[in-house]
Predict the structure.
Amino acid sequence: MIAIVVRSARLLAAHWPALLAWMLGGTLAHYLVLELASLVGARTALGGILLLPLAALCLLVAYVAMFLVLRDGMRKLRSLAPLPEDARARRKAFLDGILGGILPFVAFYTAWGFMREDVVSYINGAFAWQFQWGLSAAVAGADYDTSGTIDDLGFDPFTLSLLLGAFVARWLHQRYRARLPGWTGVAAVYLEALWVYLAAYLVKDALGLLTAWVDGRQAMVWLADLREGLVGVLAPLGFLWDGVEWLLGEAGGLILLPVAWLTIAGVIYGQAVRAAAPQLSGRTVERWRSRYGTIPQRLRRRLADLGESFIGRFRPIGRALVLMWRAGPVLIGSYVLLSTVVTLAEQWGLIGISRLLGPHDYRSFWGPVFVALTLGVSVIIEPLRVSVVAASYDETLDRLSAVDSEAEVQTAGGSAPGGELDDEVVADAAREQDKGDEVVRNAGA
């Protein structure tokens, strides 16, 4: 934990102006895009929904930029994946970081309710514009038609067509990107954000419907009756039941949020992890492989391209999770604790500023000021959070490298006569470690 704190302080002290500028720019762009989406959505639903993913994309660009800014001070990551030297390579690294970070960031953005907040803000803003225009039309004695406007997202042909069209266009770009000009990479980022954004929103709605359906089943009623019966007989059991539910709910938020941030950082920084995916085996798998081999080769090639375009997006996430697993509970637990302290600092910052400002009327003062106050504290705290995440990721790489080196040296030492480490054995182990670092460096680059 001390090592993470020291690295975080060094990263923040060296790069805080750039971090603050990127966070401020991303927050401002997020707000402006939502306002623009509300204005356009009040006229046409298609334009408003096409603009909505850009709000989340603005924040993603800011976070990717902040993580890449800190890469200059991450000693272990730089030794594994050196910084790009020319401007073209840096732009490519930035674009790759955005493309790779879209899926985990949108998943995090959806799970913590930020997407729902964006949609609610978009709908409220669009209705506000329509109210003004409708009132002006009523005063002028003209008709005002609101058909084909706003349109909340849902399982309808409109939303599904947008999702499918964006996915197919993104797949076509990925397949033929070598023949396309470089500026089409920006379009690829938008298409990736659009289909992932719509898919995440629909999955969130589907899970909500599934949860409501499960809650209405007879089995849940029996479970509730069982709880009431047990509580009636043993009152302490009811307190224990409620305590376990509270603990699971609180622990999930405290642990999953830092893990989500570390996963996003792992995807952005690249796959600096040596982890092989397990291979499936068995009679059933072999039978399906045999049947798959009977499909014409051209069709198999197309199916492989589609599968790679979808499954390939999840591989960086899996590798980042493997990295955390290999780092061990002590390091990850220290990181989770520090992340919780940062969240606590954000809450106490809001409380402290409110105490400094003193009591005021809600409608005339706190109503207009509260949003700006919350955003201001967030803009200050987020660079600190990103520094803690980056320092933890770098410390994880450093720890894993040291563990791998020690394991290789011990393995080499066990093969020596009498278990003694001579200079030749140590040199061989060091050469093997250099080869491993070279492989990881190439993967990270």
Summary: The mean pLDDT is 80. The chain has 15 helices and no strands.
